Automatic annotation (TrEMBL):
CDD domains: DnaJ, DnaJ_C, DnaJ_zf
Protein localization: Cytoplasm
Sorted UniProt keywords: Chaperone, Cytoplasm, DNA replication, Metal-binding, Repeat, Stress response, Zinc, Zinc-finger
Subunit structure: Homodimer.
InterPro entries attached to this UniProt entry: DnaJ, DnaJ_C, DnaJ_domain, HSP40/DnaJ_pept-bd, HSP_DnaJ_Cys-rich_dom, HSP_DnaJ_Cys-rich_dom_sf, J_dom_sf
Cofactors demanded by this protein: Zn(2+)
Similarity-based family: Belongs to the DnaJ family.
Its job: Participates actively in the response to hyperosmotic and heat shock by preventing the aggregation of stress-denatured proteins and by disaggregating proteins, also in an autonomous, DnaK-independent fashion. Unfolded proteins bind initially to DnaJ; upon interaction with the DnaJ-bound protein, DnaK hydrolyzes its bound ATP, resulting in the formation of a stable complex. GrpE releases ADP from DnaK; ATP binding to DnaK triggers the release of the substrate protein, thus completing the reaction cycle.
BP GO terms, sorted: DNA replication; protein refolding; response to heat
Species assigned in the record: Christiangramia gaetbulicola
Protein name according to UniProt: Chaperone protein DnaJ
Residues in J domain copies: 4-69
Segments forming CR-type zinc fingers: 123-211
GO terms under cellular component: cytoplasm
Length: 372
């Protein structure tokens, strides 16, 4: 069982924002790694408090936590189990201590903020427009992307400001007394390296713009507005940094005859009076090409024919949706004299009197069926 966030901070469930902030500030100072070097228990408490504050200090997250407990944050995002790293924690501090306290910190385990940081290149964003066939079956798109790459011939030297450590240590006076804090070196951005020589035409970071064809695998079942990530295909970072990501926003093109609803597709089929009475066969669009379907004689307007598995593959990989064909019997809007005579004669005919059987479900019953 995970500990209760309120208990960790030692506040009541109805504590105000100010009380929560104050409580966290106290805990953070008490368990700050600079004050408790090598104390694993303190480190643990420091992280737990930060995690608790991350949730309780945010109105939206707190409301979720109050309703669902720790489950609210499981599987995704931070907090599934001490998911905050030290950088996250220190980025909170600006909020709590009003700046001047943030940045990294020194001499703590070496595994967290200490030492060099690898700079990360910026992310790139593109939109990819897909038709329904591509979405239904998944596809691979080759897209030309302009990204910044390291110019060949760029050489690096050790940063003279931080001597390659990536950090600048300073002593500050805080409410705790003198504390040694370290922050990333601003000269080299924390990488510990500076550009020595770079070729002409490259920017201050030794990067040049280059067009590249990136192959993007689109899984079946994506939806308009979804975002895919292609790792490492954003802009390069200078030096030993890691490249950013390419973020791909999915756009769904409208299909001329198929409408999507989740994994199901809908198709409106219009047939004539005669076809409804005599039966017919018609070719309809599907995401895997045209398909001929049979319409039985005596079909009722509003009937829905379900073509199983002719919909969209589920994005989770669980099966496929269906294609629902809605049969609409088209009523002529104008009639010739002869046609009028015909219908007038048929008006009294017994065969033309509505006589729904149990199998001719009403429209509403069909809709109910479809969603059950
Ligand atoms: Zn530096």
């Amino acid at each position: 069982m995970k500990e209760d966030y309120y208990e960790i901070l030692g506040v009541s469930k109805d504590a105000s924002v100010a009380e929560i902030k104050k409580a966290y500030r106290k805990k953070a100072l008490k368990y700050h790694p600079d004050k408790n070097p090598g104390d694993a228990k303190a480190e643990d408490m420091f992280k737990k408090s930060a995690e608790a504050y991350e949730v309780l200090g945010n109105q939206e997250k707190r409301a979720k936590y109050d309703r669902f407990g720790h489950q609210a944050f499981e599987g995704g995002g931070f907090g599934g189990g001490g998911g905050m790293n030290m950088d996250d924690i220190f980025s909170q501090f600006g909020d709590i201590f009003g700046g001047g306290f943030g940045g990294g910190f020194s001499g703590f385990g070496g595994g967290f903020g200490g030492g060099q940081r690898r700079a990360k290149g910026s992310n790139l964003r593109i939109r990819v427009s897909l038709n329904l066939e591509e979405i239904a079956n998944g596809c691979e798109k080759k897209i030309k992307v302009k990204r910044k790459v390291q110019a060949s011939g760029t050489t690096y030297k050790t940063c003279s400001t931080c001597n390659g450590t990536g950090q600048v240590t300073r002593v500050t006076n805080t409410i705790l007394g003198r504390m040694q804090t370290a922050s990333p070196c601003t000269t080299c951005g924390g990488s510990g390296q500076m550009i020595d020589k770079k070729p002409e035409g490259s920017d201050a970071q030794g990067l040049v713009m280059q067009e590249e064809t990136v192959s993007i695998k689109i899984p079946a079942g994506v939806e308009d507005g979804m975002q895919l990530k292609v790792s490492g295909k954003g802009n390069d970072a200078p030096g030993n940094g890691i490249p950013g990501d390419l973020l791909v926003a999915i756009e769904e093109k409208e299909h001329p005859s198929l409408q999507r609803e989740g994994d199901n597709l809908h198709y409106d089929l219009y047939i004539s009076y005669s076809e409804a009475a005599l039966g017919t066969s018609r070719e309809i669009d599907t995401v895997t090409g045209k398909v001929r379907i049979k319409i039985e004689e005596g079909v009722q307007s509003g009937k829905i024919l379900r073509l199983r598995g002719k919909g969209i593959s589920s994005i989770n990989g669980y099966g496929k949706g269906d294609l629902l064909v809605h049969v609409n019997v088209w009523t002529p809007k104008t009639l010739s004299r002869e046609q009028k005579d015909f219908f007038e004669r048929m008006a009294e005919d017994e065969n033309f009197q509505p006589n729904p059987e149990k199998s001719d479900k009403s429209f509403f019953e069909k809709v109910k069926d479809m969603f059950s």
